[in-house]
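Progress note, sequence design subtask.
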């Protein structure tokens, strides 16, 4: 029954733990508890973990973009250094 409800809910992509398939089948959780996620997990902790994970993903995307820009700038510096060496060689020739 959980699988059929879960497959129906996939189109909504809702992360609300109070409206997921397990909650619909087993009923409302006891206050301060979240069923199926292990010991010590509360709704507040789950919300914090989801927010933290979203922030980490954003930081990783920013880091990847900055590393790409750094590599591009390294190529530009190498290109400019190579051109400077060519100009110096031409200027030194009699």
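Output:
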């Amino acid at each position: 029954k959980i699988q059929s409800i879960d497959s129906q809910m996939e189109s909504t992509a809702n992360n609300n733990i109070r409206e997921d398939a397990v909650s619909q089948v087993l009923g409302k959780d006891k206050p301060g508890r979240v069923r199926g996620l292990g010991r010590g997990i509360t709704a507040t902790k789950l919300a914090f973990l989801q927010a933290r994970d979203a922030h980490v993903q954003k930081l990783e995307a920013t880091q990847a973009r900055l590393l790409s820009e750094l590599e591009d700038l390294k190529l530009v510096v190498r290109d400019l250094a190579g051109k400077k060496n060519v100009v110096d060689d031409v200027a030194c020739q009699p």
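Helices lie at 2-9, 21-26, 43-92. Work on this subtask will continue into the next period as scheduled.
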